[in-house]
Design a protein that fits this description.
By secondary structure, the chain is mainly alpha-helical. It has 13 helices and no strands.
Length: about 325
């Protein structure tokens, strides 16, 4: 019977590879990615319904907006995490995945990108003489309730839909971008498709966008009464995002050691806490180093467990 060789007597090939940290992009790069991604989302989300011709338009506006969000996350998510929505940023901040100061900067960048996108559409509309004024055109895509709703939905109904939709959207984002989720690479498609189906519901009740930046961009170029109703499309989605963030923060604080994640053949773009939270990343790296030095398993916080699950690939012996 062959006795197992102690870990201390194994050769160098049997020891795990050293952990290398991938530096986070600088804040200016992340803010630029958020602004550019939000601009793309707003241009498609507002532009498709603005210029839609029913008999020649094979794709619905909600599906186009969802696909644009998925494409933006794939293109820029590796830099900023792919929020492009103040509600998603607030959910990440409450869940502990991004610093509060960084979250505030993200909100500013998203508003800048959304306003630039709406301004671009405004300029295009000015070149189309058959439209009855750009303000009238933007009225058709601006969010609203009561008389501004297609089905005359009251304020309470639109508010509840916005809270629920934003909570579900942020929950999908937080769940699919979690470090311990083996399907993390599919996050852009999950978030984009979720946005598409939610917008299908939101359009019928009051053009509810589940995105305060997009709501602000459309309201600024619409009739004055659209600005008077804009508060609801900030308060409701941020409240829904806060609920989702608190739920996932509770999951993180009560969960045990993360499950092992299958080894990836190639490095993939990171979203969520692995990109946005400098504190969580540093804490995870410190716990990995402490566990390796002490020969045991660290019992640190949830972000540290997620970082350890990322580095402790199955099939590799632990020290």
């Amino acid at each position: 019977m062959t006795m197992p060789v102690p870990a201390s007597e194994r050769g160098p090939a049997a020891r795990p590879a050293p952990v290398t940290e991938t530096p986070l992009p600088g804040l200016p790069a992340r803010l630029s990615a958020e602004a550019l991604g939000t601009l793309f989302v707003v241009v498609v989300g507002l532009g498709v319904p603005l210029f839609a011709v029913p008999q020649y338009n094979p794709m619905s506006a909600s599906l186009a907006a969802g696909l644009a969000l998925a494409a933006a996350m794939l293109a820029f998510g590796y830099l900023s995490g792919g929020h492009f929505n103040p509600a998603v940023t607030v959910g990440n901040a409450i869940a502990g995945r991004i610093k509060l100061l960084d979250a505030a900067a993200y909100l500013g960048a998203q508003l800048v990108g959304a306003l630039l996108g709406a301004l671009t559409l405004f300029g295009v509309l000015r070149t189309v003489p058959k439209l009855n004024g750009t303000q009238t055109a933007f009225d058709t895509v601006a969010a609203g309730f009561d008389s501004r709703s297609v089905i005359q939905a009251p304020m309470a109904g639109v508010l509840l839909v916005e809270v629920l939709g934003a909570a579900l959207l942020v929950a999908v984002y937080l769940g699919t971008t979690a470090g311990r989720n083996p399907a993390k690479a599919a996050a852009p498609f999950a978030v984009g498709l979720s946005m598409a189906v939610l917008l299908q519901l939101g359009q019928s009740i009051g053009n509810a966008p589940f995105n305060p930046a997009r709501a602000t961009a459309s309201a600024l170029f619409s009739s004055p009464d659209a600005l008077g109703q804009l508060w609801l499309f900030w308060v409701a989605p941020l409240a829904g995002a806060a609920v989702a963030g608190l739920v996932f923060r509770g999951f993180a604080s009560t969960s045990g050691r993360a499950l092992p994640v299958p080894a990836d053949p190639e490095p993939e773009a990171d979203f969520g806490d692995d990109v946005d939270s400098d504190d969580a990343y540093d804490a995870g790296a410190r716990d990995v180093d402490a566990g390796a030095a002490g020969g045991g398993v660290s019992s640190g916080t949830a972000p540290a467990d997620e970082a350890r699950a990322f580095f402790d690939k199955p099939g590799k012996p632990t020290p």
